[in-house]
Design goal:
Elements lengths: L23 H27 L2 H4 L11 H11 L2 H32 L5 H10 L9 H10 L7 H4 L6 H14 L2 H9 L4 H12 L1 H16 L3 H6 L8 H7 L8 H35 L2
Helix pairs in contact: 1-3, 1-14, 3-14, 4-8, 4-11, 4-13, 11-14, 13-14
């Protein structure tokens, strides 16, 4: 007797009868959104390659010139721009990597370990997200001065090594992706909490940790206020402080400033170009778990 085959689920069809069809206006909206997002960066390049006259000309000039390499050379001659880029890479990469690991550890503790006051401590961590960052500047500076770290790179690395958002982010991912039965089986096999985290928990949430590291890298790269307060020596400047030094006291060379800003943005664009798809995958992985 032949067994009846189960019916295939009905396939969704759009109004035009095609499966998964995307309407033209969706593409039109996405194209407009991309153009609006890219235009400021493109216009920076136009000003840097033409000069300040590109801003004051009527109608505004919207196509680049041929002076960008001259402006770039002037930027490197005015400030130690290459050293500033290197400093920003060192600081941003160090903070991103260590923050991802520390926040994953804290998130694992809050999500999977039982200890007195766990919920209260987590609530305190969340409440720190409501405190403006400007309120912590004076206490941080006093601590850095007491440690004699003013005008050093560790002064801008250490204060950013953990974040309330990062702890919350990793706790939510670990709560939904790390199976309690798997942890119990690992403990029966003799694994301690650190071994469970490193061999089971962290590999599971590695995409989320990567996303957190990338967000942190971008935030540290673009930070201006705290490095501007604690750094004094030009050879220790990050790229954002170097951009500030391109501005004269009373006048601003728009071509010079825009050229430096464009070159300071390029490393971030390169990073997102190579890891953007992995970042989206990490975000979506957390969205569909649980």
């Amino acid at each position: 007797m032949s067994q009846a085959k189960p019916e295939a689920p009905a396939r969704r069809r759009g109004h035009g009868g095609r499966v998964g069809r995307v309407r033209w206006y969706v593409y039109a909206f996405l194209i407009v959104a991309v153009l609006i997002s890219v235009f400021p960066l493109y216009y920076m390049f136009v000003i840097a390659s033409v000069g300040a006259s590109a801003v004051t000309s009527i109608p505004p000039r919207l196509y680049p010139g041929f002076n960008f390499f001259d402006i770039a050379t002037k930027v490197f001659e005015t400030v130690p721009f290459l050293q500033s880029l290197l400093n920003s890479v060192i600081v941003s990469l160090a903070v991103a990597v260590i923050t991802s690991l520390l926040c994953a550890l804290a998130g694992f503790a809050f999500a999977k370990l039982q200890f007195p006051g766990r919920n209260t401590l987590f609530l305190i961590v969340l409440l720190t997200m409501t405190v403006p960052a400007q309120l912590s500047v004076i206490p941080q500076y006093l601590i850095i001065s007491w440690l004699d770290w003013v005008d050093t790179l560790q002064a801008i690395i250490l204060p950013g090594l953990a974040s309330a958002f990062g702890i919350f982010w990793m706790r939510q991912h670990l709560s939904t992706t790390l199976n309690d039965e798997l942890m119990a089986a690992a403990r029966i096999d003799g694994a301690n909490s650190w071994q469970i985290f490193w061999r089971i928990g962290f590999p599971v949430v590695r995409p989320a940790a990567f996303v957190l590291g990338l967000i942190t890298f971008t935030g540290v790269w673009n930070d201006f206020m705290w490095p501007f307060i604690v750094l004094k020596s030009p050879e220790l400047f990050t790229v954002q402080i170097a951009l500030k030094q391109l501005q004269a006291n009373r006048t601003i060379d728009l071509a010079l400033t825009m050229g430096g800003s464009f070159m300071a943005t390029l490393p971030l664009l390169i990073v997102f170009f190579f890891v953007g798809r992995r970042m989206v995958a990490g975000i979506m992985d957390g969205a569909f778990k649980g």
